[in-house]
Amino acid sequence: MELQLEAVTKSYKSKQVLKGISLTMGAGVYGLLGPNGAGKTTLIRILADVLRPTNGRVLYDGKDIRTVGDEYRAKIGYLPQDVRFYGDFTGRDYLEYSAALKGMEKARAKKRIEELARSVGLWDDLKRKCAAYSGGMQRRLGIAQALLDDPEILILDEPTSGLDPYERIKFRNIISAYAEDRLVLLSTHIVSDVEHIAARIMMMEYGTIQHIRTGGAYVQMMEGKVWLEEMPAEQLIAYQNRAVISNVRAKGGRMEVRIISDTKPVPDAVQAVPTLEDAYLYLFNYLPERAGR
Amino acid sequence: MSLFRFELRKLLLNRKTLLLLLCLFVLYSVVGLTSTVFLIGGNDSYRAYEDLAAGWEGPFDSEKAAEAEKIYQEVSARYGTDARMIARSVKDRPEIILAVNYHAYAERVEEYWNGTPPESAEEPYGIALLQGKLAELKRQGKQDASDYRELSAALERLEKLGEPEFVGALLWENLFNNWGEHMMQFLLFVPLTFVIAPVFAVECSSGMDNLILSARYGRRKIVTAKLLSVLAASAVVVALYLAATFLFGFLPHGSFHGWDAAIQSIPTYARSMFPWKVWQLAAVGAAWLIFTGAVYSLVICLISSRMKSRMGTAGVSLAILFVNVGLAAMGDTVTQRLGALVDFGLANVTLMKEVFGGYKGFNVFGMYVSYPVMAAFVLGVVSAFAVLGVYRGQRSRTVQSM
After folding, report:
1. Interface A:B, Cβ pairs < 8 A
2. How far apart are CA B108 and CA B241, in angstroms?
3. For every one of its 293 residues, what pLDDT tens digit does chain A have, with 9 covering 90 and above?
4. Are B129 and B116 in contact (CB under 8 A)?
5. Same domain for A187 and A279?
6. Structural domain tally of chain A?
7. Claim to verify: residue A124 and residue A266 sit in the same structural domain
8. Could you list the residue range(s) of the whole structural domain that residue A204 is in?
9. N or C end of chain A: which has fewer CB within 10 A?
10. Alpha carbon B251 to its chain's center
11. What are φ and ψ of residue B48, in 5° steps?
12. pTM value?
């Protein structure tokens, strides 16, 4: 199974949101990271076939998804960024309606709804109206919906927003267990969501995918670029305007500051072990600032 | 649950819409009831009317006509010439109501024999008038012309139907008025608009488009399910109107008198070319209203599939309805100029008295086609256009962005 983007562009009037993205994805978990307005949701929507590219095409196993049509959509599970519900639908109604839309057989749908409701922790709430669900419960219901027909391609847009830390870990475990032999594309702002489960991470900015690497490669790229420095709080306020700081921690009346920099920022700074979050800040904050963007 | 059942639930079988339907049923019942109550006084007056009418029913009687004319002249001098106004003014005088109705019947008989005035803009009607026109065409040697064929067919039909007979079918007249006047279009089609409008627009406003459009059945099968649910919802709303006005139109007096009379006995249908009984017209009229309601609903469905909100859809749909009603209400000179636009506009084709109450026909490639057949064809084409438009729209539909 292969999903391929060929020079995909998307424009709204004069604004180009996607700029000729070409990409090939096979089985595995792909993380899509990028700042707001990078074009992540637009790209996700095109892959979910709810939005059409202005130019270029998306190929599924070499065939244009517009030609494959229903059969392509039968293979995808999609969790949109903003999950909404009909006011009078219960959780069960929502999942049954989703199953009907996916063309699932009644008995299989019933079984899957039970399995997924239990695994996302909504079994006891299925009879309640979706509108009465908390944000986290609505998100979990959306995740169950996306997984319902056991899709070959799972497209998730901000899947963990609104989930508490335990739910996020649980979600990651579900996805990891699920991902074998399937393609999972996970768009998020939360670096830790993809850090542990994504085989490849795409960094997207200004409508293009700037980098595709493994998490380890990003971390390796950051070797020698992450520094720790202790300074008083007053100094920090002035300092943070001229440096990219990834973390600040109070330590014995002083501040331990984690700085992203190609060179040693201050004479007594010491090197720190880099993380994926450091790489994110380096690519989307440090480099653009250096380039004067 | 199948997609159709879900769509039906979203459109019709939900608490809000069921509450609306309940309110509509009450409204329609009041319409049926009040129209009957204003028709004639209490039950005693109606019984007396029916008893009196029994002696007057049957073929035209010139003595009775003269008697009725005398009474009519007296009451019209006092209450005006409008039969409904007279009836409301003398609700407890069934003998006067009967005389006024017989007077109107006598005029219809006169029209049957002598027809519309030659200068009338209406389609030629009446035995003598048709004979005269045919003789003139014959003199001009136009026996092969389509006009000649149409007129002779009209004459043949008229002769076959025979002179109308008098029947005291007050309650049926009232029912057909409720089913076939402009007020019905507002009472029925305005609520129908609000019931159908959300069918597609709700997906956009609720944000469910994302789920639907990315699903296997989100481009085609869902359209079929939605269209079927629209047809079912439309049939339910129209049936509610028909049932309530029927039930509460007849209930106060508990009589179906006149049910097997010829429809030409009903004033509005005196010129009808159909050899139907009153009950048959009621059945055909009900079916026609359900059919036209379905066509209008499909048009709303098409609009809904192109709009972002249910209120926008309702606004455009109502604008179409009101423009049609407005055009149909224009004077003869305007409606004749607009021709087919009015004939096959929503306002005219949804009125059963316009479709089945006349004798209008169309010359289609030299072939005479009656108005109901032509109207059914045009509505069929409109429906097909709407359905194709909805399918095409859903195929290329995308979520709202930016």
Report:
1. 86
2. 30
3. 899 999 999 998 889 999 999 999 999 999 999 988 889 999 999 999 999 999 999 999 999 999 998 999 999 999 998 878 888 899 999 999 999 999 999 999 999 999 999 988 899 999 999 989 988 888 899 999 999 999 999 999 988 887 888 888 888 888 888 887 899 999 988 888 888 888 899 999 889 998 999 999 999 999 998 999 888 888 888 887 778 888 888 888 888 889 898 888 888 889 999 999 999 998 888 777 766 65
4. yes
5. no
6. 2
7. no
8. 3-219
9. C
10. 22
11. -65, -40
12. 0.88
